[in-house]
């Protein structure tokens, strides 16, 4: 087993284990902080898939932006939000969650079945791209190519996303402002 | 090298964990985290397939757009959750069952 493979298995184990912990724990703060670890492990997986720029973006936007936003949201909303979570009725876990577990496991079985049927490594366009050497090599610098593509072929979605971010900014500010006194 | 099937399996497992969180949790913030997990699973697939598209960078580009859209979604969703909490004093989606004021 090469080093890359060992790292891949380590990263995917960390990602899956922390994701299971996020799903299983009842404590909201713990689940948010474990979600940090899931996102970092996913960034590591992106690096192993030779997408360094996406990995950095993942860390900057997800860990630096989204998670801090979530933390702020329930820290600013006061102690009551946390209390609401604490006073959840304590039932026998597996009985009330059984349908959800069943749904998730069955869906996982369907997905795994389909993944082995598809046999993604021998798809037509993938073997074609290996033949035409259209594969990202481990020592390649991809960031420059991403920048060029972003300003040429993907300019329209780029601008659309910028308008959408603007709309979301205005919308979030409008939703969370204080109501005027009547 | 790592095969594509490995990436697909990891991402399928992450997606199912996210699905379980969305269906079973009694807390809107945890449901939001489940949605983020599912988005990340999809991103992992896009990035893994993007390795075989060096010239156009299709997979990585769409992963980037998906990350940005997820950020916008989260901001609006958290604003909505805070408003719902102000009005109903709970963020359990099961107990928010009134349409009128």
UniProtKB/TrEMBL annotation, chain A:
Membrane-spanning residues:
6-25, 32-49, 55-77, 98-116, 154-175
State one Pfam family annotation. Oxidored_q3
Q: Which InterPro entries match?
A: NADH_UbQ/plastoQ_OxRdtase_su6 (IPR001457), Nuo/plastoQ_OxRdtase_6_NuoJ (IPR042106)
Q: Which UniProt keywords apply?
A: Cell membrane, Membrane, NAD, Quinone, Transmembrane, Transmembrane helix
A GO cellular component annotated for this chain's UniProt record is: plasma membrane
Q: Which GO terms describe its molecular function?
A: NADH dehydrogenase (ubiquinone) activity; quinone binding
Identify the EC number(s).
Answer: 7.1.1.-
The compartments listed are: Cell membrane
Topology in the membrane?
A: Multi-pass membrane protein
The source's superkingdom equals: Bacteria
* Top-level EC class: translocase
First-listed, main subcellular location of the protein, grouped into a coarse class:
membrane
Q: Which reactions does this protein catalyse?
A: a quinone + NADH + 5 H(+)(in) = a quinol + NAD(+) + 4 H(+)(out)
State the family it belongs to.
Belongs to the complex I subunit 6 family.
Its biological purpose = NDH-1 shuttles electrons from NADH, via FMN and iron-sulfur (Fe-S) centers, to quinones in the respiratory chain. Couples the redox reaction to proton translocation (for every two electrons transferred, four hydrogen ions are translocated across the cytoplasmic membrane), and thus conserves the redox energy in a proton gradient.
- Name of the protein in its database record: NADH-quinone oxidoreductase subunit J
Q: What is the native source organism of this protein? A: Mucilaginibacter frigoritolerans
> Source organism lineage?
Bacteria, Pseudomonadati, Bacteroidota, Sphingobacteriia, Sphingobacteriales
From TrEMBL, chain B:
Swiss-Prot/TrEMBL catalytic activity = a quinone + NADH + 5 H(+)(in) = a quinol + NAD(+) + 4 H(+)(out)
Q: Where in the cell is it found?
A: Cell membrane; Membrane
- Which UniProt key words apply to this protein? Cell membrane, Membrane, NAD, Quinone, Translocase, Transmembrane, Transmembrane helix, Transport
InterPro entries to which the protein is assigned, alphabetical:
NADH_UbQ_OxRdtase_chain4L/K, NUOK/Mnh_C1-like
One annotated GO molecular function is:
quinone binding
Q: Which GO terms describe its cellular component?
A: NADH dehydrogenase complex; plasma membrane
Q: Subunit structure, per the record?
A: NDH-1 is composed of 14 different subunits. Subunits NuoA, H, J, K, L, M, N constitute the membrane sector of the complex.
PANTHER family, alphabetized: NADH-UBIQUINONE OXIDOREDUCTASE CHAIN 4L, NADH-UBIQUINONE OXIDOREDUCTASE SUBUNIT ND4L
Q: What is this protein called?
A: NADH-quinone oxidoreductase subunit K
